[in-house]
Queue: 2 jobs
Job 1
Amino acid sequence: MKPTAALRRALLAWFRKNRRDLPWRRTRDPYAIWVAETMLQQTRVQTVIPYYERFMARFPSVQVLADAPTDELMRHWAGLGYYSRARNLQAAACQVVTRHGGALPNTARELRALPGIGRYTAGAVASIAFDRREPVVDGNVARVLARLFALREDIRAPAAQKRLWSEAARIASGAQPGALNEALMELGATICTPRAPRCSDCPLRRHCAARAAGCQAELPVKSRLAPRRRVEAVAALLLRGGRVLAVRRPPGGLLGGLWELPGGPRRRRESPDAALARNLREGLGLAIHSAEPLGAVRHEFTHRLLRLHMFRAQAAPGRVRRAGFDAHRWCAKRAAAELPLSAVARKALAFLELC
Ligand code: ADE
């Protein structure tokens, strides 16, 4: 048997016995698989499961998703991060309805023409839902392949990426490409882990060049990303007649379409109080009477570490004149928690308990 055929056989036999029972593995519906693969980008399986189940219960088909109000969609995505995924998913659902009669196209090439579907998602959906011999390379697969072929280059380097995709394509070009791809992901998630890989339980141990050379712990080589920038911002629980003001960010950009508490960035050498007064004046045309500090919220974004100074503030009378937000609402306290809030806004809103 050729080496790749033997490797595929070992991989599939292992996967049949060891595959985790995950909700998106109980369906062959291409839409459901697309939703799952979109949520799984950059996000852990255990985090995704409850979001996926709620999302599929509320938006069970392409048509329902295409017709859904954006706020409703964002409410179901709030907390998962990378919100452009949700907006793209809906934009793509609309195109599937108008251009493909509501059925997801069944080739990687056509899938990639849809908003938000890149090489990974196209390969995953085409192989898992449509049995196309298309590769996938995500973080887990890259680690497995870098070890299997003892690839010593930085896996983010273009030449290494090219090699990884071509090795993945070779493996996926057998029968059951979807299972082969999922098996590689599963192996990376459960056996070929970043630290302390369990090589003695690995179905590919006889094929693995890193294991033969004893260098599995040093692979993959991965360049460090630039350290995350520290940023500071301010926000207020702005109260009027027992209601709190919430604002919505315009679509596009960081946290686009999500609701939050009014505020904005703190400039260098600006005090938090002054930053609050300035942001509320510039962003909402509101003056504040008083601002009482409540404490700070920390939040980690992919490229930033945020420290958000929280205040309770009383607004002077006057109408809101928005600049930079696309909606605002004075909410009863309980209603504010029902809005599609970003994870950081949800942490900030917890200060309502103190008010
Ligand atoms: N990560 C990305 N896609 C996955 C899948 N289909 N199953 C498990 N983990 C995944």
Note: The pocket of adenine is lined by residues 22, 37, 40, 45, 138, 182, 185 (CB under 6 Å).
Job 2
Amino acid sequence: MTEIKRIFTVNGKPFFPIGGQSCNSSGYNDKESETAFRIVKLLHGNTLEIPVYWDKVEPKEDTFDFTAVDALIASARHNEIKLILLWFATWKNGNMDYAPAWVKTNPQHFKRVIAPTGKDVWNLSSHCPANLEADKKAFTALCKHLKAVDGTEQTVIALQIENESGIIGSDRDYGPEAQAIYDSPVPAKLVSAMKKAGKGIIYDIWQKAGGKASGSWPQMFDWEAGELMTAWSIANYIDTIAEVAKAVYNIPMYDNVWLMEQAWWSMPGESYPSGGAVTKVLDIYKWFTPHLDVIAPDNYQLDTHNFKKVCAAYSREDNPLFMPETIGNQNMFHAIAEYNSIANFFFGLEFILAQDGSVRPECQSMVESMWCTAAIAPLLLKYQGTGRIYAVTQFDQLSSQTLELDGFTGLVELGDKRGLWAGTDWRHRRAGWLGRTAAPANPAYCLIIQAGKNEFYMVGANCRLYLRPKTTLAKMQRDLALSEGAARTFAYIVSVDEGHFDKNDQFIVDRTRNGDEIGHRGLWVEPDINVLRVITCD
Ligand code: DGJ
């Protein structure tokens, strides 16, 4: 049993957020955000991630305007959707695009990062106290406002501080203040954290550079010193903001990451923002951000193999897996089943719509995947961490997969390979009647939860589960005798029902299957059936 740190709660109860992130410019007013809210509903979701912009919140220094924030909260309440607000401020994708004009135009006071060339970079330096002060003040004002207008209702369930922090354009700040730090001894707290860990990527970099007991950043970390110092500095910067803001309004806060895995080469400041919480420096972030609830990777890896590598890196005992941005495909089922992810959002909600407002055909299966997750969410909260959730998806041409279940061996068949009678009932036929029309290439995926030895729940598309009881010598002899030589193949089925979970998380039967609809067609699922419940017996 794995203990899961559920960051998201509603009315004090664990909550499984389902939804997506709007496009960057959707948070300005009602008209811009309307589509995003509509799409969350279409996905059967419950949460929208949407930005709040420092330059709009504080257009003049010390003058705050929360009109747009209030509009978002009002729309969210109207739509019965929760919000995760994204604070676009000092950093947005490794630059300072969302800093207010009075910050952007005063580089003498609000210092920018200086590149090795001596030129400044479009990035506010984390080593400049004025930058930290200004951002902290604005974010704290936002939190104060949220507490006043939303402290009771709690429509906003979490805040992201910054967006993909770090520097694009340099590995570190080469300005005089940062240089002085670079040449000074690495803080004792970092050295003792490395010693205590005794392993990990940061520890290895330190050892490779000679494992000295003390020394300047380059003495301790060789060529990677600039990035590590920047990570330490930005982690402290964001954590300071979180600490002060949480004292004002204590709701979950996190930092998201532009991954180093995104490009095939790895160059801090070029292929990803240097100093962001990439896998290389994740330990530094975990040591220096005690006020953040989670470090959250933006996992845009397309294929299952690379997607899972990121999941593995960010799901640690001290960090539950939360992915605020993904590409939005069936990989999320692996994150849920194998890495206990507490939420997976996909980026760019509005992109799923065609000009006429319909769902683009290529996005339909992603929408359906979200339906499946939403339908089974109550069971995810209950069974994640128990080892009783299984994800099967059809990447890499997978056509079937066996599962070692409690008391049964399961076989999941994916896709339409059985042709004529490929699973399903008349409502869901993918191939034409008796195969007269070719079946479309629909992705196949499912999530199976074995709630008890004889109780299964399943959601998904285009796949079928078969169950065969595991046997013992006595059982085998009995079965062989009963069937006069042909061993019993499938589990004894008590009932197969399609249904949904009500507000009290009770399973409500909507349709019952038997006869042809179970038999040789297996236990099939399609997105619009909601949840399939199968009860077996010995
Ligand atoms: C990641 C960022 O966090 C988002 O705000 C957005 O810019 C996407 N990349 C890509 O458009």
Note: Confidence is low (pLDDT under 50) at residues 431-440.
